[in-house]
Amino acid sequence: MNNCLLVTGGAGFIGSNFVLDWLSSSRGPVVNLDKLTYAGNPENLASVANDPAYTFAHGDICDAKLVARLLAQHRPQAVVHFAAESHVDRSIAGPEAFLRTNIDGTFTLLQAAREYYGTLTGSERERFRFLHVSTDEVYGTLRPNDPAFHEETPYSPNSPYAASKAASDHLARAWVHTYGLPAIITNCSNNYGPYQFPEKLIPLMIANALQGKPLPIYGDGQQVRDWLYVLDHCRALRAVLEQGRVGETYNVGGGNQRSNLEVVTTLCALLDELVPESKFKPHFQLVKYVADRPGHDRRYAIDARKLETELGWRAEESFETGLRKTVEWYLANSAWVESVTSGAYQQWVTQNYGSRDLAEAPASEAMAKEAL
Ligand code: NAD
Ligand code: DAU
Predict the structure, then answer these.
(1) What spacing in Å lies between the alpha carbon of 285 and ligand 1's midpoint?
(2) 164: Cβ below 6 Å to ligand 1?
(3) Per-residue pLDDT tens for 319-359?
(4) What pLDDT is stored for residue 370 in this prediction?
(5) Which residues are known to be catalytic?
(6) Distances (CA, A) of 172 to 113, 211, 311, 351
(7) Rounded Cα distance, 60 and 78, in Å
(8) Are residues 77 and 7 in contact, defined by beta-carbon separation less than 8 angstroms?
(9) Nearest-ligand number for the alpha carbon of 236
(10) 106 C-beta neighbours (distance < 10 Å), count
């Protein structure tokens, strides 16, 4: 064994940030197993494509033979499992792929990791970890004054996506308890930052605003998310890999609870400032209230004290600094946005937004404008 990592889903949003960050600090080689679904983009990793420490393996985590071969060939010190179908709206439109990748795929990886772990001895066996990257959505939804999700909060997933991630968490937990696989689970809040596919709230709003397209807010826009800058998440994952306790769960959150309307209002103000020549200014005029997401979770919030006290991790980016960096990245990388929003992306936009009725602006919009 060497200090190699087997990363799954490394061509997606969080995975590519993690791989770039890992390689930039020469921590050791990375093998990236990715199927390159619509969400996976090798361009995200173009800067390391010729790095001898980086190997790309195009394939499916459900392919047991391929996973076993990669483990035997590269003998990683850890598997960092990001690969998933990750978009809630797509899980509502078509849950099958979510069950296949998120549940069957995780099962396949756990089985292969278990086999591989069985071949390890001594310090190699001591050191091996399976890091399962999961979400706060497994805990369900919070009311306005409920305490934030902590590691003991009962699971209560509400969307097909959340249910599939919850199932995968249960599998990882069972593989620790039954087979002694040294797995650790992280449950993280909403990430934002470079390379996020523009189907998710923040990059979708940036891309639409820059083109003068409507900014579709589901329902009344008062749903709350706890925003975490993606590189803070990557640091947390490194801390868990290095010092996390086997069989434990760690919650990761940014401590930045914002309503969707607040997020879009702040984004529009940033775009007004950073693109002063825009003919769509003020960008907030592009906001359109549309029919809500079915089963929409009202509020997520993360209690990250376990990670902070045990592993000394802290989110470094405030929402304001992280959002500014994110908008600046999208402005500087318009070619990336163009390349990922052609073709099949347009079909998704028509499917998801074409049939959503427009809704009346709620009273909260006036409040948001006043707050500016
Ligand atoms: P993403 O959708 O941007 O990327 C997913 C990646 O997985 C893509 O590169 C895709 O090609 C790959 N993939 C999908 N199916 C595959 C398969 N069967 N085999 C191999 N590769 C496959 O996702 P993301 O936002 O980067 O999320 C990464 C992980 O983090 C997911 O497990 C997600 O549940 C979790 N997570 C995400 C967030 C968030 O805010 N984005 C928050 C908490 C947890
Ligand atoms: O909480 C962690 C989760 O965060 C991750 O596990 C998921 O992979 C990730 O997609 C994200 O899920 P959300 O559903 O919270 O993210 P999304 O960006 O899709 O939506 C954020 C909020 O914005 C949510 O309340 C729905 C709303 N929204 C979203 C879109 C795309 C809108 O109002 N309009 C939109 O067009």
Answers:
(1) 32
(2) no
(3) 999 999 999 999 999 999 999 988 888 899 999 999 887 77
(4) 55
(5) 136-137, 161
(6) 11, 43, 21, 34
(7) 18
(8) no
(9) 1
(10) 28
Distance CA 134, CA 165 (A): 7
Nearest CA to ligand 1 atom 35: 134
The number of CA neighbours under 13 Å toward the Cβ of 154 is 1
3 state DSSP class of 189:
coil
CB of 307 closer than 6 A to ligand 1?
Answer: no
Sketch out the chain's domains with CATH numbers. Answer: 5-197+228-252 (3.40.50.720), 201-221+257-297+319-371 (3.90.25.10)
Ligand 2 centroid from CA 296, angstroms:
9
Q: Ligand 1 in contact with 190 (CB < 6 A)?
A: yes
Q: By the 8 A CB rule, do 132 and 109 touch?
A: no
Is pTM beyond 0.90? Reply is yes
Say how many Å lie between the CA of residue 293 and the centre of ligand 2. 10
Which whole-number Å values give the CA distances from 244 to 74, 130, 239, 298, 328, in the listed order?
23, 11, 7, 31, 34
